[in-house]
Amino acid sequence: MATTAENLKCKECGRTYPLKALFVCEFCFGPLEVAYDYEKIRRRATKERISHGPPSLWRYKDFLPVNDKPAVDLQAGFTPLIKADRLAAELGLKKLWVKNDTANPTHSFKDRVVSVALQRALEMGFEVVACASTGNLANSVAAHAAASGTEAFVFVPANLEIQKIIATAIYGVNVVKVNGNYDDVNRLCTEIASEKNWAFVNVNVRPYYAEGSKTLAFETAEQLGWRAPDKVVTPVASGSLLTKIHKGFWELGEVGLIRRKAPSVHGAQALGCGPVAAAYAEEAEHVKPVKPDTIAKSLAIGNPADGIFALEVVRETGGSIESVTEQEIVDGIKLLAETTGIFTETAGGVTTAVLAKLAAAGKIYPDDETVLYITGDGLKTLDAVADTISTFQIDPSYSQFEEDVLGEVIKS
Questions:
Q1: How far apart are CA 15 and CA 17, in angstroms?
Q2: 269 neighbors 292 (Cβ within 8 angstroms)
Q3: Which residues on adjacent β-strands are paired with residue 372?
Q4: 244-263 average pLDDT score
Q5: Strands across the sheet with 264-270, in order?
Q6: With contact defined as beta carbons under 8 Å apart, do 292 and 300 qualify?
Q7: pTM given for the model
Q8: DSSP label at 402?
Q9: How far apart are CA 71 and CA 3, in angstroms?
Q10: CA torsion angle for 151, 154, 155, 161 (degrees, to 10)?
């Protein structure tokens, strides 16, 4: 069934373009976004039709810019929405949910965006896929390329966590470590994209890629019984995820699947790379680039492409964008693990710490139904918490177990 997408539309000046591998307006250099025929979606996308769809993001295909059934399907999406009562109690909240996207095939939300980008790239005839990545995207592009038999080039900062490099190279793709930070990698990839007929998922295919993030909102609403929560808290790197979660809830309201209501959207950044949080705090209209210096490397984008649009969303919805220190990130990882059983990477530590900060400041009320988006697995960033754990070591002796283990446990 043909896509419901109509064209690409400039977010700045509104000019439209055909559904090709384009990402920037040739008149004002604004970013392009997919525009849809919402009447067509309203006729197709009923709750019953969606409920009979596959248990993956493809149950929302009517809202995505693809024509065909997915050529490659790693079953990304439809991850658990978990009621987090112990974490809620710790923070003085009553109705808290965790959307656990560590359950995706390569253990991060990037499987959503790559699924859509790769499908669209194949539909447009590309034979090579590529990306600039802070790690999670690299893992996902590599896995999807391997499954489809597509050649892939993955570009990452040379100082990326070794776990993420291994989890990319294992799929047999071309991994290129670039001396510099993510912004340097991204500039190189933009230059390569202008020279090679490759599908860079987050450069020339970015408008399609970004749409995959909407499925986080679709699933949240469906799993809550077709309603939007009062508030959501999501990490901010480029800013795209935050804006697309908002767009997802908006679209469900637009086609009548939920009562027209968008939740207040709150963004989370690390203080060591918080350009959007700084702009929000200063009530600025523009985002000033920074040089990243944080353990939250998956959020370490110093010049976020969608930062200004993230600011618009949080101001429009009554949300906010906050930043937290390196210690607060580690504390957030431990708090989430110890109260929910979910081990998150550093980005989730940022998001959890910001949730705690918002709750303590009274910016999230106890009765607010709130969803916390956890977007990546802690096994990818073990070094961040390796020095914080404690263990016991004893001889195989019951008396020593009682004295050295139980004795210490009772004292604590």
A1: 7
A2: no
A3: 98, 233
A4: 93
A5: 81-83, 95-100, 369-374, 231-235, 264-270, 320-324
A6: yes
A7: 0.95
A8: I
A9: 15
A10: -160
User: Measuring CA to CA, how many Å separate 183 from each of 17, 43, 109, 238, 304?
Assistant: 27, 42, 21, 11, 9
pLDDT tens digit string along 178-217?
999 988 999 999 999 999 999 999 999 999 999 999 999 9
What is the distance of C-alpha 277 from the center of its chain?
A: 17
Q: What is the DSSP string of 290-331?
A: ----SS-GGG--SS-TTHHHHHHHHHHHT-EEEEE-HHHHHH
Residue 1 has pLDDT above 80, yes or no: no
User: Please, what's the b/e burial string for 44-65 (b: 16 or more CB within 10 A of its CB; e: otherwise)?
Assistant: ebeeeebeeeeebbbbbbbbbb
Q: Does residue 261 carry a pLDDT above 80?
A: no
Strands 5-10 and 32-36: antiparallel
User: Residue 146: what residue type?
Assistant: A
In which residue are the tokens 């969303």 written? 313
Q: How does strand 320-324 pair with strand 264-270? A: parallel
pLDDT single digits (tens) 59-94: 999 999 999 788 889 999 999 999 999 999 999 999
Write down the mean pLDDT value for the chain: 95
Residue 75 has φ and ψ, to the nearest 5°, of: 65, 45
Rounded CA gap, 9 and 1, in Å? 22
Tell me the C-alpha distance between 145 and 300, whole Å.
25
Is the pLDDT reported for residue 262 higher than 90? Answer: no
Residues 6+ apart with CB under 8 A from 319: 231, 264, 265, 266, 267, 313
E-strand spans in 140-181?
Answer: 151-157, 174-178
φ, ψ for residue 319 (rounded to 5)? -95, -150
What pLDDT is attached to residue 388? Answer: 93
Q: What is the mean pLDDT of residues 43-52?
A: 96
Q: At what angle do helices 214-223 and 240-254 cross, to 10 degrees?
A: 50
